[in-house]
Amino acid sequence: MSDLPVHGQPIILFAEECDRGTLREENQDSAIHIRIALGDLLIVADGIGESAGGATASRMAVEYFYAHLAALPQDYPADNALREAAARANASIVVAARAPGSPHPRMGSTVVAALLQQHGDITNAWIGHIGNSRAYLMRAGRLHCLTTDHSAVQTLLNHNLITPEEAKNHPDASVLTRCLGHQLDVEIEIEQLSLAVGDTLLLCSHGLWGFVPESEIQTAAASLSVEAAARNLLELALTTGGHNNIGIEVARLIAPPDPALRPQTEHHPAAKWVLTIFLLAIAGLCVLAWLTFVSN
């Protein structure tokens, strides 16, 4: 938690990167940040499926999440909104995949979404995810994973059947237990947390966290600007070989400008009167010059 004083509503800065990597022929990841009535919406979706199926599914995931959430009023409950958006996106991908003659019958997508809402100096984040795209929080120089993967490897880890080291190179590393598009009903896992000035929120696909150690993600996320953080994270993923598509969304809270640092002329009543008198004097001289010209 930051100890920086806050005067008014914190400012949120955003940056994103989305790249196909160096080995894949196409980019099946989708990433978006957009402002809607409910707040600031960030989404990263990682497509699954042969040929262009993954790209289609991830794009549909983003489009249906956005379409549903953008149509809701400002006071709509955020958790319900995310559940409904996930259900609509899932149903749409299922229908498209199972349609007669569909070229992508096995397409699907992971998704991680964040809805940031500000009320005065309070900033709340609602995080929803399905699959193994992740959300991280960078706070006070430490990186914390906010999501738990819906994957076969995570299930083995939960039951202490493998170690974290064994999980990194497990043959079932790409097997998901939950995703959009592969079953009629899918549950989105939702977390809510309060953000403080200095916090950085990171959403990313497996193309980043699956190949870059969290210690290096932590260092890159601490970059001076959100643009540098997103760019450095992408470069890290590419440097490791760029084995997968890479989707990244970054949001950071900074303190608003301190009113005490504004120029004194904005606040000093005497300065306003001096300016007013000066302008009136100029106007009077102009009128006098015009009258003199007319009289001659």
Class by SSE composition:
alpha+beta
Main sheet summary:
5 strands, antiparallel
Order of helices and strands: EEEHHEEEEHHEEHHHEH
Give the strand line-up of the largest sheet. 1-10-9-6-7
For this structure, the CATH topology of the largest domain is: Phosphatase 2c, domain 1
Cα Rg: 26 Å
Strand content: 25-35%
Give the number of DSSP strands.
10
Query: What separation lies between the terminal Cα atoms?
Result: 75 Å
Average pLDDT over all residues: 89
| Domains, number | 2
What share of the residues lie within helices? Answer: 25-40%
Report on this structure.
This protein has 296 residues and is an alpha+beta fold. It has 2 domains: 11-260, Phosphatase 2c, domain 1 (4-Layer Sandwich); 263-295. The protein is 35% helix and 27% strand. The protein is built from 8 helices and 10 strands. The strands form 2 sheets. The chain has a 5-stranded antiparallel beta sheet with strand order 1-10-9-6-7. Strand 2 and strand 3 (39-48) form a beta hairpin. The longest helix has 27 residues, at 269-295. The model is unreliable at 1-6 (pLDDT under 50).
